[in-house]
Design goal:
Elements: E1 8-19, E2 22-33, E3 37-41, H1 48-56, E4 63-68, E5 71-72, E6 82-85, H2 97-107, H3 112-121, H4 137-149, E7 155-159, H5 167-182, E8 186-191, E9 202-207, E10 210-215, H6 217-224, H7 229-245
Helix pairs in contact: 2-3, 2-4, 3-4, 6-7
The structure holds adenosine-5'-triphosphate.
InterPro entries: AAA+_ATPase, ABC_transporter-like_ATP-bd, ABC_transporter-like_CS, P-loop_NTPase
Domain ABC transporter: 10-233
Protein name: ABC-2 type transport system ATP-binding protein
Length: 246
Amino acid sequence: MAPGATAAAVEVDHLRVVRGGRVVLPDLSVTVPAGQVVGLLGPSGGGKTTLMRAVVGVQVVESGTVTVLGEPAGSPGLRSRVGYVTQAPSIYDDLTVRENVRFFARMVGADTASAEEAIAAVDLESHAGVLAGRLSGGQRSRVSLASALVNHPELLVLDEPTVGLDPVLRRDLWRLFHQLAAAGTSMLVSSHVMDEAARCERLLLLREGRLLADEPLPALLERTGAVDAETAFLSLIDAAEKEAAS
Ligand SMILES: Nc1ncnc2c1ncn2[C@@H]1O[C@H](COP(=O)(O)OP(=O)(O)OP(=O)(O)O)[C@@H](O)[C@H]1O
């Protein structure tokens, strides 16, 4: 474990976030263990991106604390230790894939070898010389992911990294996530696709800013009596809606 890292990659304690006058996270407490692939799932608008933004320190929070790798979220010391890939890939269209990744590498003090390694990790070697503006949506998001990988962050926060990818690429990316976790990287990965839950070591199900599940898939299936993650989540969501209506 790297110096300063703790057993928990992220500790969220009574986090309250209001966006545009709307309470998005009323009172969220959750721990993301280190060195695992943790899936953040739930209906659209449930607060997944907001939670990720709080973890990387770009979200204004009303109250509560978010501790990342032992430091308050957003601390300058975390800048090189945490990687964040948003839903909208942040890349330069007028640069090639290689130039984009090398640019981000330079910004964080990583060398060109790390940039090439990251391009290979996301399977974009064959497109390294192509202008980013000419890439597909899935390829663009992989450039963004490669840029986040260049300095080997201890925590990677990925917002829907597999959107728009075909099944083969999705499988390959999930393999990469597990390789990174096996090498000690903590991964917080959001997804709309419920079958991706089966690929995570631990699942967080967030609905309307509240955590409906925080456990490994086998425990979730046992608790709900469901056969798969999607059925389990739907039953928990239905139960929460019934409770809210009563
Ligand atoms: N910039 C913003 N200003 C005000 N409210 C916002 C803003 N961005 C998001 N929200 C609101 O915050 C709530 C949670 O949004 P968030 O993006 O965190 O959800 P999500 O679970 O990531 O959704 P999705 O799966 O669709 O990306 C939503 O009700 C949304 O309308």
